[in-house]
Amino acid sequence: MAKETFNLTPETRLSAELKAGKLRRAYFLYGEEVFLTGVYAEKIAKLAGAETGDGLNLLKMRGAPDMDVLSDFAESMPFFAECKCVRITDIDAEALDNDQSKRLISLIEQLPDTTVLVIAMTGVEVDDKKPKAKTKKLIQTIEKCGAVCRFSFLPVEKTSAMAVKKAAKSGCTLSPENARHLSELCGQSLTLIQNEVEKLCSFQQSGEITREAIDRLTPRMIDASTFALADLILARKTAGALRLMDDLFTQQTDPVIILSSLSGAFVDYYRAKLAIKAGKPPRTASKDFQYFGGRAYYFEQTFTPARRVSEDYIKTCLEVLFRTNLLLNSSKADRQTLLERAVIEMTSARQV
């Protein structure tokens, strides 16, 4: 397994520290699960006492910070509190000029004990496998005096349980089975799940949230939809696959995006087949292929259907998808028709 680029602090450890009232001087929070990233940023600011002093102990900044303002605030004493907090959202370290970058690094290295710095990445992706120089320097500097925490999508069991609790608080009932279905439609994103449960409860008012209501009111995430589509193709359920594709077209999903995501799903099937042949379990294989969060979840679900089909059949499907991609980019034929033909060809292909 590839070595982690950064020395990450697990969420469980961060949570335990905050519950115990322990604060570090600096935090870098990022990952797929932006809901948790935001929640922990708020927890840290609250624990630092930033809600006291009539707002004078909290400085919020977004993007590239004004270094003069940041330095003046960070180096001054808190107002009737033990600490003050700087919260910077979505900083792009690579967009800083060399002087700004050096000043920021120096400030973090010399943060007084009375100031807590939180950098929360909720709208900017962080490449933690091959980070660029300034981003890597920033994160590694925070490692030395604080904590770097990556929030991946939670397992479907946890997200569905949270959906059940949220529905109950709004006076509605959501069964574990329907909560799991909702979680999978939302790609396990807590932000989407929270929003969709609120919408469903508002529509339902009270009583049980049915599977029918979920399917009618909740838009499908493209990953969840295309993996469901791939499963129908592998099961040779042509009619079901075409109906699901029609749903995606009705939602005005770009055919190119459908094909790209579907091709990715079949690449995952092929990788799962190779892992099965090598005797590797799903969790180990997902780490070997460097899948994380929701991506790891979907990949691990491919092992069961991959066992039912041959390696040659998966290769045939990949060839069909490759040819369809060429046609989408060069032919004047209707794109929806090309995708439908590809689905029919794959479900009709001979199993070796």
Describe what this molecule looks like in 3D.
It is a single chain. By secondary structure, the protein is of the alpha/beta class. Helices cover 59% and strands 9% of the residues. The chain contains 17 helices and 7 strands. α10 packs antiparallel against α11 (238-250) and α10 packs across α12 (255-277). The longest helix has 23 residues, at 255-277. The radius of gyration is 24 Å and the shape is globular. The mean pLDDT is 86.
In a nutshell, what does this entry contain?
This protein has helices spanning 11-19, 34-47, 67-75, 98-109, 133-145, 156-169, 176-185, 190-204, 211-217, 222-234, 238-250, 255-277, 282-288, 293-300, 303-308, 311-330, 335-348; strands spanning 26-30, 58-62, 84-89, 115-120, 147-150, 172-173, 207-208. By secondary structure, the chain is an alpha/beta fold.
List keywords for this structure.
7 strands, five-stranded parallel β-sheet, 352 residues, globular, two-stranded parallel sheet
Average pLDDT for all residues: 86
- Reading the helices and strands in chain order gives HEHEHEHEHEHEHHEHHHHHHHHH
Rg is: 24 Å
User: If helices are DSSP runs of H or I spanning 4 or more residues, what is the number of helices?
Assistant: 17
Counted beta strands: 7
Shape, principal axes of CA atoms: globular
SS-based class: alpha/beta
Q: Report strand %.
A: 5-15%
Low-confidence stretches: none
This entry's quaternary arrangement is single chain
Helix content: 55-70%
